[in-house]
Amino acid sequence: MDMCPPDPRTTSVPRRPRTIPIALAILSLALLSGCASDWSRPGPAPTPIGALAPGFVPTPTPTPEATIDPVAGSWDDVRASPGMRVVLLTAGEDAPTRALADAVRGWAGEDQADLRTVTVDGSPIDAIVTALDMRADLIVGVGNDLIDPLTVVSANHLDQQFLVVGAELPEPTANVTAVDWAGASFRGEGNGASSTYDAASFTPERCASAVRAGVAAVLHDLTGIVIWID
Length: 230
Fold this sequence. Notes:
CATH topology of the largest domain: Rossmann fold
CATH architecture of the largest domain: 3-Layer(aba) Sandwich
Distance between the termini: 52 Å
Number of helices: 5
Number of strands: 9
Helix content: 25-40%
Largest sheet: 7 strands, parallel
């Protein structure tokens, strides 16, 4: 009998040979891989490990909808406390969206976040609601097709923190933080991509840096702003 519920993040774990005592096999699996956390119960609030370096936060502290231009790398020393519950909300199979999704997964592995993924397959609104129902510490949205639906939904769920990477909402509320750069900056509402949009700018390095900068801001309660990186 399994002691852990099925892990929603992974495929099934191969069973050990029956020659090993069942209790020992179960104990070994628990020690090696652990059980997925139960998101139906409240977890500890995530906290930053490390601090933002000088040059990240301007003076005075930015208000919601402001754009900041932090010193490059001023967020590099910030980590999330292990077990932070994060939903990756992704829409689209284009190269920039895939690069951003990979960056979120990479960050989650480095910081030991408890990451789950919701992929838009039909209505973006339905996918966002599914993500909301999971009650994550943070929902990270990637893919331009999410921008207009997020604009509608996020303003009605101010208790949920969102991070948008590689795009931004036209009028974000205090619970929506965005990270952008010259080759990105999609804003929805029929505006399409900016004149400087460049799919080639979504490099693995820039995407990884953008994710880490955005999470660092959220962990330090600098939300509702746009973070502009090089």
